[in-house]
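User: quick one, sequence for these tokens?
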């Protein structure tokens, strides 16, 4: 049996707001829409007043973007479903922070799935770490961080501290500068897509490396050394590309 949850819809387009409200009212008996808002200040007042369990939050509002709204809260106790047609850098920040989002124009079924996920995970006490990581990642000059989740914990790891990642079927293990090994149930291919523009390179089917940690490359052995101690095999098909990158960087 689902727990009853309260929701605020924050969206500046009246038609979209009406559609979201009607969709939720038609699909969920245990979700109560307690308020709606279309501007940042109005939204902040209603969140403080109603203390919702979750908000459906459009990023672009009339008087600014909703990240400004989130930064105004010292503690974020509510879950968020982001609705966005925002730029690529924001989408990247969502992915690094393991935050779900719904793209406009959205499929109603996708929004319903997002709400169902909130119902299942509304007591996630570590969610605030993900939101803070998102806001940090949205700072153009800030240190990029990635959120790694498994059954035991949530880890917020600066990209600069990851030495390499190793694939094991649909699992990936991250090896960090402080000698942690963090196992997550997500494929290396998906991380390769997220990290390829941040000095990470797939040198082998099994390994994704942080180029900043290369200390030597043995061509004949087809092996790269990271941080002076980690020996990583380099696939023959990746050798030429890696040599070009090394020539460019160093």
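Assistant:
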């Amino acid at each position: 049996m689902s727990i009853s949850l309260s929701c605020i819809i924050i969206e500046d387009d009246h038609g979209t707001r009406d559609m979201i409200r009607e969709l939720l009212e038609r699909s969920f008996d245990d979700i109560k829409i307690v308020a709606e808002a279309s501007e940042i200040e109005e939204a902040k007042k209603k969140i403080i007043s109603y203390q919702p369990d979750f908000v459906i939050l459009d990023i672009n509002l009339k008087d600014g973007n909703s990240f400004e709204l989130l930064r105004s809260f010292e503690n974020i106790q509510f879950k968020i479903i982001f609705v966005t047609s925002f730029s690529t850098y924001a989408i990247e920040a969502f992915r690094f922070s393991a935050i779900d989002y719904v793209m406009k124009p959205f499929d109603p079924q996708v929004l319903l799935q997002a709400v169902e996920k909130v119902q299942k995970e509304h007591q996630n006490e570590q969610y605030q770490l993900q939101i803070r990581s998102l806001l940090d990642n949205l700072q153009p000059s800030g240190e990029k961080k990635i959120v790694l989740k498994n059954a035991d914990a949530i880890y917020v790891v600066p990209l600069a501290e990851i030495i390499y990642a190793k694939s094991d079927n649909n699992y990936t293990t991250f090896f960090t500068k402080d000698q942690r090994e963090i196992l997550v149930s997500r494929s290396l291919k998906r991380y390769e897509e997220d990290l390829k523009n941040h000095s990470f390179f797939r040198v082998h089917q099994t390994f994704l490396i942080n180029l900043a940690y290369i200390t030597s490359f043995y061509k004949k052995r087809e092996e790269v050394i990271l941080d002076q101690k980690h020996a990583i095999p380099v696939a023959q098909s990746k050798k030429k590309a890696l040599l070009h990158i090394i020539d460019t960087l160093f």
